[in-house]
């Protein structure tokens, strides 16, 4: 079974007045069918740009995808909408397709805007950090959810509204048959995020990408949204990319974790393996920075001293070398490749933390 998404060597740059921002510098990862992959890293590490560039959501210019591929295995291979088979159109409209029907790859980076728009609405749902900017302030909630069903599933208006009410109930909106008439400003932040989630799952997508979906919410509501995602994972057969800067949230929700630094993956592992056996000094720093009952807040800042890399500088060596206690000559000479160090465990580091010495690569 191929992964549903296979991103290889993705590069994304922004041309700004200050120079070229090297936002994403060779990101590769896979997303397996039904799995939840967390992408973790501090602010500016390239998490959002990575996923947004896959679906044509970065501003061009100044942004540009300068290399790589993103094979999406949920649709048939033709790219011209007018020449697509019934099966491919079914995929694009987000309709259920029997598992034994043919799966072929489609390179997201090569698609036209029109094709991307269809996939975005139907097969790949997005949940952004700020629910207010994802919703239309002058359209009732019900219409916003049902609109996507009429557009992508071709449902008649009444049926779409009925389905919207069921969906809103499913994501935990009380009295959805009454609340569909409300406008976004009449909802709390947490309720708005539930609406955005309802829109993202409306067409039974193959992939849901959630970009820091809880950061704009207070702690109790954050926990509720995390619980809702866990429930959706069980109810729907969906693969999830969950982006966060907080490794603490990840344990409860992800199967695997991709740690990013300076626009590159530095470690990827099954979640328990990452917690028990981190192989990259940056990951150990992130884990050390997690709040613990026996530590005081001021301790945490000591875990990863120093500042994130300057993304205006082209990457010629390990981006973490400046802040790394273990850096030696090789780390300043070239970029460490992502190599396998165990089952489903990869790391991009020239230093072997286990052996306490340089790694043979
Ligand atoms: N429109 C833009 N123009 C110029 N630079 C940009 C633009 N969008 C993003 N960048 C730069 O790309 C880099 C990666 O940004 P990105 O938003 O992916 O970070 P992130 O990991 O999602 O961070 P955060 O946790 O703060 O959301 C940053 O250096 C950022 O300044
Ligand atoms: Mg971001």
Automatic annotation (TrEMBL):
It comes from Candidatus Desulfolinea nitratireducens. This is ABC transporter ATP-binding protein. Belongs to the ABC transporter superfamily. Residues 7-287 form the ABC transporter domain. Keywords: ATP-binding, Cell membrane, Membrane, Nucleotide-binding, Transport. The keyword Cytoplasm does not apply. It holds the Pfam family ABC_tran. It is found in: Cell membrane. NCBIfam families: oligo_HPY (TIGR01727). GO terms for molecular function: ATP binding; ATP hydrolysis activity. It comes from the Bacteria. It is a peripheral membrane protein. GO terms for cellular component: plasma membrane. The keyword Nucleotide-binding applies. Gene3D superfamilies: P-loop containing nucleotide triphosphate hydrolases. One of its GO terms (biological process) is peptide transport.
């Amino acid at each position: 079974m191929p992964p549903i998404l296979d991103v290889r060597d993705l590069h994304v740059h922004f041309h700004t007045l200050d120079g070229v921002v090297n936002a994403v510098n060779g990101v590769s990862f896979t997303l397996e069918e039904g799995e939840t992959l967390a992408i973790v890293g501090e602010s500016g590490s390239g998490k959002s740009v990575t996923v947004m560039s896959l679906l044509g959501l970065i501003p061009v210019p100044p942004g540009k995808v300068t290399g790589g591929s993103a094979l999406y295995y949920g649709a048939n291979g033709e790219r011209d909408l007018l020449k697509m088979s019934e099966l491919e159109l079914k995929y694009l409209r987000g309709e259920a397709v029997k598992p034994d029907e043919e799966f072929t790859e489609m390179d997201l980076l090569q698609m036209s805007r029109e094709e991307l728009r269809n996939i975005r609405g139907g097969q790949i749902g997005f949940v952004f950090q700020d629910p207010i900017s994802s919703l239309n302030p002058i359209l009732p909630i019900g219409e916003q959810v049902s609109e996507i069903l009429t557009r992508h599933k071709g449902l008649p208006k009444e049926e779409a509204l009925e389905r919207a009410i069921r969906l809103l109930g499913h994501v935990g909106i009380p009295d959805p048959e009454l609340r569909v008439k409300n406008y976004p400003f009449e909802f709390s932040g947490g309720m708005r995020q539930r609406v955005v989630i309802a829109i993202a799952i409306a067409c039974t997508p193959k992939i849901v990408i959630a970009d820091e979906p809880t950061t704009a919410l207070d702690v109790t509501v954050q926990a509720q949204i995390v619980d809702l995602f866990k429930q959706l994972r069980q109810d729907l057969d969906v693969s999830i990319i969950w982006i966060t800067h907080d490794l603490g949230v990840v344990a409860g929700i992800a199967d695997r974790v991709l740690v990013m630094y300076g626009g590159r993956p530095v470690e990827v592992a099954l979640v328990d393996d990452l917690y028990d056996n981190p192989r990259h000094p940056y990951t150990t720093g992130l884990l050390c920075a997690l709040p613990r009952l026996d530590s005081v807040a001021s301790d945490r800042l000591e875990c990863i001293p120093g500042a994130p890399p300057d993304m205006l500088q082209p990457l010629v060596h390990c981006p973490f070398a400046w802040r790394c206690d273990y850096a030696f000559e090789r780390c300043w000479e070239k970029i460490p490749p992502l190599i396998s160090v165990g089952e489903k465990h990869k790391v991009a580091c020239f230093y072997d933390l286990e052996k306490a010495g340089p790694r043979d690569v």
